[in-house]
Structures are given as C-alpha cells and as structure tokens.
Amino acid sequence: MSLTDPVICVDMGGTTTRIGAFAGGRRLTEVVRFATPKPSPGGSIRDEHLDRIAGAVTRLRDATPGQLREVGIAVGATVDATGRIRNASMLWHESSDGFDLCGALATRLPWATITVANDIAAAAWRYRALGRFGLVTVSTGVAVKVFDDALPVDRKLLLDADGLGGEVGHVRVDPPAGLLGAGTPWCECGNTSDLCSYVSGPATMRLVALLAEAWPQRWRDSKLSACAGGVPEHLTSRDLARVAGSGDEFTAAVLRVSTRPLAAQLLHMSALLGLRRFVVMGGFANGVGTPWYAALRANLDELLPQGGWFTGWSAADVAALVCPSQDDDDSLLGMAEFLAARRDQYRELRKPVGEPTTRVHSRPRPRCGREQFLARVAYAGICGTDLQMLRGERGCEPGVLGHECVAQVVEVGSAVHAVAPGQVIGVNPNHPHDDHDKIGHNQPGVLREIAVWDGALAERGQAVRLPDEGRAEWVLLEPLACAVRSLRLARDRGRGGRVLVIGGGISGLLHVLLARRWGAERVLLANRGGDRLRLAVDRGVLPDEDCLPLSAGLPTAVLDATGGAGVDTVVVCVSGGGPDLLTGLWPAMADDATVHLFGGFLPGDTVHLPGGDAVPTHPIRSGQRRTVRLPGGRTSTLLGSRGASAEEYREALDLCAGPDGLRLGPLVSHVVSLDAAPSVLDGLAATGRVNGDPTLRVVVDLTLPGRSVRAVDGTALPHLQAAS
Q1: Cβ distance 720 to 408 under 8 Å?
Q2: pTM of whole model > 0.90?
Q3: What is the pLDDT of residues 489-529, one digit of tens each?
C-alpha cells in the first residue's frame, strides 16, 4: 500500500458518529454524520451501531476512487491495542468488557484492514506539530492523552504495552465540601464522584439539578430556570450553552463547579510531566465555548501553586495552558494522520544481542537504492533454529529472527531486473556460494514488515517466484527444500525403501511426507513425546501404526515393524541430543543403510560408532561422508546436509503444485500476529507450546492487527489473494 492510497476513518463518538475518506493529508469526501444510537432501558444498541457503521463505510468505499482497503476506527471507549473493549459505558451505556471490536468490524467488513484506537489517542495525531502536549476530551466522557513528537512513532503517545493510558475520567476526586448537599455526582461507568461525574457533558447537566437543590433561590432567579420552566431535567446541553453566553450567574457557577476538578487535574499533570499546553476537544466543552473556558481558566488561576514547576509563571502562561481544538473532526483527521505516519514506518521483531527475548520495534520505512528491492513480508514461519538462537544454543545474532517467508515485492531499484513490483516471492536464506551467509542467521531475518535486499540476492536465485495467491503455508517451502536435498542423498544411492525419521517436528514431518510421496515402502516416525505423533496422525501425515516412541526400545520396535530387515534410511531431525539417539540404533539398520544427520546437532557434537570411534558431526553435515562398519559385516554410510539450493526450492514448489500436490497446510497449527510473537516465542522456547497447546509450525501473519493468536486445523489459512 502506498503512502497516498485513500483510507476511511470512523469516529465513534458517544453523541455523533462521523465517517470520511482521506488521502495524502486531505479529505476526499464530505463527512458522513449520524447520531450515535442510544439504548432503550435494558436494551443494547451495540450491534445496531456497528451495522450502521459497516453500511456507511461500504457505501463510502464504493463511491471513492482508488484501491481502498484500510479503515481506521477511533472509538470513544477504553480499548486496548488488540481492538478489545475494556469499557464502553460512555459510548453504548454498557461495559462490553472483552468485546472484540476489531473482530466484529472485520466480520462486517471482510475486505478491510482495520485499525482500532481510542478516539483521543487518534485525535492527538492531528496536533503533533505542537510537539509535546496533552489532549483533553470533554464530551460524553473525559480523558487525557499525552503526546510527544520527539519520540519514535510507536512511543509518541504515552501508553502502556496494551495501548492504554490517560483514562483519568474514572478516577475519584474530592467533591467540594458541603456544596452539593445530599446529592452525589455519578458517572455512567458506575463510579460516583469521579472526574467524569463533574466535567462531562451529561454530568454537568445532572450537576445543574444538584445545584438547583443546593441553591434553590439562585436557581429560581436564573435564566436557566426560566428556560427549563423550573425543572432542571428539562434542560439540554444546548440550552446551557445558549444561557451561558448571556452571562447568567447561576450558569457560570455551575461551570465553575464542573471544571474545578479538571483544573486541579491539569495542574497536577503539568507539574508532573512538564507540560505547558493542553488542547481541549469534545462536543460539550467546545459547544458551550467561551464561558466554559472562562470557568476553567478562573479555576486554574485560583488553584495555581506559587513555586516549584510554576515559579515565575505569568498570567499569559496560565492562559496559554489550555486552548480549544479546531473543530469536531479531531478524531477523524487524527486517525488519518496516524495511519499516514504508520505507513511511513515498519515493524520488526528484534532480538537484542545476548538477550533471550524479542521485542517489536518500529523503524522508518527504508528507501530503495538503485541496486536494491523492497518486499512486504506477509507470512513468516517460526522454526527450531529461531528458538535455539533465543535460548542461546546458537551463537547467531541476526538482530531480526526468521528465515521462512512469503513476501510481495513493492519497490525495485533501477538496476534490479530479476524481480518486479507486485510479484509474490519466497526467499531461500542460503547463499549458494557462501555457506556462512544466511538470512536469519548472520543476516537480518524476515520477521519484519518490510525487508530491503540487494538485487544480487534475486540474481543468485534466492528470491523464488511464487504463484500470486501467496499462501501462508508456503513458508514451509524452505524447510521442504532442505528435506528434498536430504532425502535425495539417500534416494540417489538406490536406498530409501524403508525409512525411519527421528523427530516429530516440522523437519521430521516434511521428511515423512516427502518419503511417502517418493514411494518409500514404509516410513516410520519416532518421537519423544506423544503430542506430536498424535497431531501427525490426526492431520493425515502418516497412520498410527507407523508411529514409534523414541525410547530405549526403539531398535527392537524398528526391527519388529520391518520384519527384522531393518531400515534403509535413518534421518535424524530432532531439537537436540541427536548424537545420543544413534548409539543403540545401529543394529536396526539394514546393510548399506544411510544415516542422515539433518538436525539436532550443536557445535562440538560427535557420533559414537559401533566400534567405539567418535565422529565429529560438523564435517559430516558440511558434506563429508563416513563409512561405518556394523556388526555382522554390514556397512552404513554416515552423511548429512544443511540448507538447500534454488533448484531444490523450486522443486519443493513444484511438489506442492496442483490439486494433487503435497499439502503443507496441515503442518500449520497456529497463526499469530507480529505483536503477539514475543510472548509466543517465549512460550515456544520454554515449553514448545502456545497457550498450553502442542504445536507444529507457528506462522506469523504480519497483516494481522493487535495481539492475535489462532489455533488452526490446516484449512482456510490466510493468503494474499484473499487479502486483496
């Protein structure tokens, strides 16, 4: 998506909902406005509200030229970074705690990429030119967001990891002693005497009634009483705004009482954070206008401390502390500005050197040099190598993890001709002429939204053209290509009739699938735990009778399964301890068998041979072969491989082509978003599980918003063609 593509922005306010299309910092259409529905007693208007929004957005999309897929939702509720509601009492008059607003809108707008943010957090972006400031809303509710334009894009708003902060409206404040008699201000969230109970529009109208009871004569003498026929409950906020402008004494007193807790709050925040400017937005404050600001500034003058942060403040400084917003489109225009700013950034999953953790970082979008190309990574796989780096079992520090991906080329330098914009590619991480030059090992990996690569990578064949549908399960083409190289070593020697794969991880299961596709007589799978074996059987990788426990009895079980003949090929694909697994297995091998050291080996590992010799694994995995003398005059060949060539990657793709091709989808157990990846990686590194569930391949969908973690059954996986 380019920086100038149009977007639709929605402002879900408690009073009015606004919807407009924007591009390049300007509004493309007239803003659609409708009154936010209000529930009947005991009823709910949430679904009705969302249905009306979805209908208006769809109509606006149909009427707006250009490829429009991005929708930004600014919502007048407490909402976290995943788009889940924490409290929507001020919006819908119901808490809706835990409601997946982003998901509900995605169901109604399946074509859209949806971003959800609090309306004040979105609005703050409109005023980023002020640098460092607080943005206050006084409308149906009250909240304050602090913005600092000197900070990185993902840190400019002072929020916590869940995207929350500034919800001060629901903090209790001390009521003026004896002022309100027996009355207690209350808030729609259920609190009493919180900031919203005094300052919000609905609360100020309720405050009129309380003060009318506390000051009966002043009420009867007021223009406000005359306007309401003496009944405070008959007043509207428009009545109050009109009478306030006439200089009515009672109305001015109401505004002084209403704004006093806010004045104290702003002075606290000013001193605490060193803020000299607050912009006030919201239909109520700006609807009442000058009288409301006069009341607030009078309270600021009266409460202003003399000393500390405020030493030397002049009347002009106090007057400049608060100013009104420009109009009622703050959240719309702010959301458009936020989406534009975010497009100029990209996120990556960075592993700090020497630390067993990862963090999502935002960085400025890279520029494309003459001999470079940029690709937007859609899907990336998390493999055992990434987890080994996280645990410190490998010395590699690529900065950004990951070497399995499906990506789409978005920009190409003038000197690059091997790829073109719009092409969907997979990337072979292995340099064909330098075994130590690997993406995700010593080069930055693919767990980032935008990758910048030298054109030489494409010219070497490492960027492999994929079908335009760009399926998420094709992240497994890279490990499948490695399995192609691995099993070919055995097949080309005329062996492979009876195959034993040790290790039920993805590499092991790919070897099983490939050996069965290539016509092996029998393929056995041995694994330490039963979870992976059950998943493999349930997902159709192999039948239950071909699964063996990886234990001391494995040699006997292999001989029983092969009628005493033994296996012709052993492939070791484990997460660790590979050398030890072979020690007792030699008797279960047929004459002239091959033993392939594929995975589960660390620097310095050795394999103990039947005669007592120890063979270092690293030279074997780098291409050397070793003949092993077995008891009874038999022999075996010890060999290994790492990585795959561009030709093997293309062969892997061909194996998956067509309706009868290899199905890789069943090997994907979870799809997660980039924001969820750090915690998912922590769990995988520690337990091998996600949310307590056993896993196969976990795919990071970099197009997913928020912290999304989905268990999948291998069907209906995401793909780029569906997303477009």
Answers
A1: yes
A2: no
A3: 866 655 568 999 999 999 999 999 999 999 999 999 999 88
Which residues, 6+ apart, have CB-to-CB distance to 666 below 8 Å?
539, 540, 541, 696, 713, 714
What are the strands of the beta sheet with 626-629, ordered from one edge? 547-549, 522-527, 498-502, 567-573, 589-599, 635-640, 626-629
Contact 610, 585 (CB under 8 A): no
Alpha-carbon gap, residue 158 to 168, rounded angstroms: 13
The pLDDT tens digits of the residues spanning 29-54 come to 899 999 999 999 889 999 999 999 99
Q: Give dist(CA 366, CA 422) in Å, integer.
A: 18
| Closest listed residue to residue 130, CA positions, set 420, 330, 393, 351 | 330
pLDDT in tens, 643-657: 888 899 999 999 998
Reference 353, options 297, 383, 394, 302; nearest CA is 394
C-alpha triplet 142, 147, 152: angle, nearest 5°: 145
- The rounded distance, in Å, linking the Cα atoms of 501 and 525 is 5
Other residues' Cβ atoms within 10 Å of the Cβ of residue 63: 11
For 575, the token pair is 């997460």
Q: How far apart are CA 177 and CA 390, in angstroms?
A: 58
3-state secondary structure (DSSP) of residue 143? strand
